[in-house]
Write a structure and sequence with these properties.
Largest interface: A-B, 14 and 15 residues
CATH class of chain A: Alpha Beta
Strand content of chain B: under 5%
Radius of gyration of chain A: 19 Å
CATH superfamily of chain A: Cation efflux protein, cytoplasmic domain
Keywords (chain B): Membrane, Transmembrane, Transmembrane helix
Distance between the termini of chain B: 43 Å
Order of helices and strands of chain B: HHHHHHHHH
Shape of chain A: elongated
Oligomer: heterodimer
CATH architecture of chain A: 2-Layer Sandwich
Pfam family, one (chain B): SpoVAC_SpoVAEB
Largest sheet of chain A: 3 strands, mixed
Number of domains of chain A: 1
Pfam families (chain A): Spore_YhcN_YlaJ
Strand order of the largest sheet of chain A: 1-2-3
Structural class of chain B: mainly alpha
Number of helices of chain B: 9
Structural class of chain A: alpha+beta
Helix content of chain A: 40-55%
Shape of chain B: extended
Protein name (chain B): Stage V sporulation protein AC
Protein name (chain A): Sporulation protein
Radius of gyration of chain B: 22 Å
Chain lengths: 158, 159
C-alpha cells in the first residue's frame, strides 16, 4: 500500500513537471561553412533554386497572427503551400482560423494556387520539403510533384 | 435513497435504513477520481503516442489517424484482458479504464471469456456483446440524435 502511494505521488510529480516544462525552440546556429546542413527556423528555404520570396511573405503573415505557433511554406512558380500549427487553446476555432488564413493568402497571392493546412502531418511534410529544397536543391518539377502529393494528403478525410 | 421513496417505508425499514447508513463503508470519491484521472490520462497518452506513430511512419493525417489508433487501442486492451492484466488496471482505476475506448475491448473480451464454458455459438457468440451491445446501441442512437440536431440547426436555424 505504501509502495503504491509513493508510486502515485511520484507519478503526480512527473506529470506536473512534464506539463509545466516549457519547450525550447529548436534553434541551432551553424558555426561556419555552407557544407554543414543547416536546420533553419525561418520556415522557408532561403537558398533554394526557386525564388522563395512569396513563401517568405506568407510565413511572415501567418506567424504574425496571435493564434499561430509556427508556420512553414514552399512555393513554386504557380503553387504556394503553407502549413502551420494552431496554438493549443485556439484549436477550438480551427475551422474559422483555417478559413481566414486561406482567404487572406488568396488575396495576398492572387496568381498562385494556395494550399494551406493546419494539419500536423502536412506541417511535417512541408518542413521536409523545405529541407530538401535547401539542402538537396530540388528543382521545380520534383517540388511540384511533392506539393501535389501533400495536397492529396491534405484532402483526405476520415 | 430518494426522499419520496423513503417516506413510503415502514418505520422498521426506516430505522434499518439509518442503521445501515451509519455503518456502510464510505466510498473514497476523491481518491477514485484522482486514480481515474491518472490512469485515464495515461491511456490517452498512449493513444496519442500511437497516433503520432501512425502519422510519422505512415501516410495518415491528423484527420485520418483516428481510425487506426482506435483499432490499435481496442486490440491492445483485448490482449491485456485476455492475459488478465486489464482487470487489475480496472480494479485500481475504475472509470479511468472503462470510459476510454479501451474499456470497450475489455467489455467484449471479458464477456467472451466468462461464457466460454457454454460453448462457442450459444456461449461466446451470443454473450460476447452482452455489455458492449449497449455501448453500440446508445452510441449509434446518440450519434443519430446529434446529427439530427445539427441538421435541423444548419438547415432551418441558419447556423
Amino acid at each position: 500500500m505504501n509502495m503504491r502511494k509513493w508510486l502515485l505521488i511520484a507519478l503526480a510529480i512527473v506529470m506536473v513537471m512534464g506539463g509545466c516544462a516549457k519547450e525550447k525552440g529548436v534553434k541551432q546556429q551553424s558555426m561556419q561553412g555552407t557544407n554543414l546542413i543547416r536546420t533553419n527556423t525561418d520556415g522557408t528555404a532561403k537558398r533554394a533554386s526557386i525564388d522563395q520570396r512569396p513563401a517568405e511573405r506568407a510565413v511572415a503573415y501567418v506567424r504574425s497572427r496571435d493564434d499561430i505557433k509556427d508556420a512553414v511554406a514552399v512555393n513554386t512558380r504557380k503553387k504556394l503551400l503553407v502549413a502551420y500549427q494552431i496554438k493549443h487553446m485556439d484549436r477550438f476555432y480551427r475551422k474559422q482560423i483555417e478559413k481566414e488564413i486561406h482567404d487572406h493568402l488568396k488575396r495576398l497571392f492572387p496568381d498562385y494556387q494556395i494550399i494551406s493546412s493546419s494539419d500536423l502531418k502536412i506541417f511535417w511534410k512541408t518542413k521536409e520539403l523545405v529541407d530538401n529544397l535547401e539542402n538537396k536543391k530540388w528543382d521545380e518539377t520534383k517540388t511540384n510533384k511533392q506539393i501535389q502529393k501533400i495536397k492529396r494528403l491534405s484532402e483526405d478525410s476520415a | 435513497m430518494a426522499n419520496e421513496k423513503r417516506k413510503k417505508l415502514t418505520p422498521v425499514q426506516q430505522e434499518y435504513h439509518l442503521f445501515e447508513k451509519a455503518r456502510e463503508t464510505k466510498r473514497p470519491v476523491v481518491k477514485n477520481c484522482f486514480r481515474a484521472f491518472l490512469v485515464g490520462g495515461f491511456i490517452c497518452m498512449v493513444g496519442q503516442a500511437i497516433s503520432y506513430f501512425y502519422m510519422y511512419f505512415f501516410d495518415f493525417t491528423e484527420q485520418t489517424v483516428g481510425n487506426p489508433t482506435v483499432a490499435t487501442m481496442v486490440f491492445i486492451s483485448m490482449i491485456l484482458t485476455g492475459f488478465g492484466v486489464y482487470d487489475r488496471i480496472a480494479q485500481f482505476a475504475g472509470a479511468g479504464s472503462a470510459v476510454p475506448v479501451t474499456g470497450f475491448g475489455n467489455a467484449v473480451i471479458s464477456a467472451a471469456i466468462e461464457h466460454r464454458t457454454e460453448g462457442f455459438v450459444l456461449g461466446v457468440g451470443s454473450n460476447m456483446f452482452k455489455l458492449a451491445g449497449s455501448v453500440i446501441l446508445f452510441g449509434t442512437f446518440a450519434a443519430f440524435v446529434v446529427a439530427l440536431v445539427k441538421t435541423i440547426a444548419t438547415q432551418w436555424g441558419g447556423l
